[in-house]
Design the sequence.
């Protein structure tokens, strides 16, 4: 596609529910990143994929958060037993190879609200 | 502690004015420093990327500088326009890392 797309754009759920957020990176990009942005803050790193594997998941806050990228393109961020503190905008980015000089291209984000 | 700080948090200027946005960071082992623009409800758009070996980058009316020794970067916007209104975020990439570490942003409003 022309850019990084994320679905849904908005997700409202109840505390304790399970949610999945989807990211479609730019075609051919091997590197994919998930970030979380709380109100009034800059994005915070969650996880980085190189191909199908999670090369760095040090930003995942706890074991309720999990992400997959089974075919090296689309990625899904999964949150179990959601809490109100999980409410944020979840951003996905991709870059061509994950190199330090590569530009990361961001999607529009999914706004998650946990009631 | 690794920190990226942006001051001011918000800035309003009249159209046509030149302005400077500031970014400071505590870790000098950066690989590069990037500036992004974020419009409400939208993702981030990369504006400029400065490698650690460089001192500045320019794109149109934008000029970004990097001073590793003092831990500071500035984004200079010339002849501001209402369309420049957005939140501007700086982010640093540490040597050997893959993820960007962002500041909290400066919300810019250019008044027609």
Sequence:
């Amino acid at each position: 596609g022309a850019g990084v797309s994320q679905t849904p754009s908005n997700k409202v759920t109840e505390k304790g529910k399970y949610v999945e957020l989807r990211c479609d990176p730019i075609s051919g990009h091997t590197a994919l990143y998930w970030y979380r942005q709380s109100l009034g803050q800059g994005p915070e790193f969650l996880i980085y994929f190189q191909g199908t594997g999670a090369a760095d998941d040090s930003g995942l806050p706890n074991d309720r958060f999990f992400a997959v990228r089974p075919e090296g393109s689309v990625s899904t961020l999964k949150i179990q037993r959601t809490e109100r503190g999980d409410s944020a905008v979840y951003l996905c980015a991709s870059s061509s190879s994950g190199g330090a000089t590569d530009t990361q291209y961001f999607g529009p984000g999914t706004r998650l609200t946990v009631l | 502690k690794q920190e990226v700080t942006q001051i001011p948090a918000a800035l309003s200027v009249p159209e046509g004015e030149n302005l400077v946005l500031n970014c400071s960071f505590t870790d000098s082992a950066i690989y590069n420093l990037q500036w992004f623009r974020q419009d409400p409800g939208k993702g981030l758009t990369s504006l400029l990327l400065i490698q650690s070996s460089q001192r500045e980058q320019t794109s149109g009316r934008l000029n970004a500088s990097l001073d590793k020794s003092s831990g500071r970067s500035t984004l200079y916007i010339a002849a501001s326009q209402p369309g420049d209104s957005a939140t501007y975020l700086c982010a640093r990439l540490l040597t050997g890392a893959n993820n960007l570490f962002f500041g909290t942003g400066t919300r810019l409003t250019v008044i027609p």
In short: Chain B touches chain A at residues 4, 31-32, 36, 41-46, 49, 51, 89, 91, 93, 95, 98-105 (CB under 8 Å).
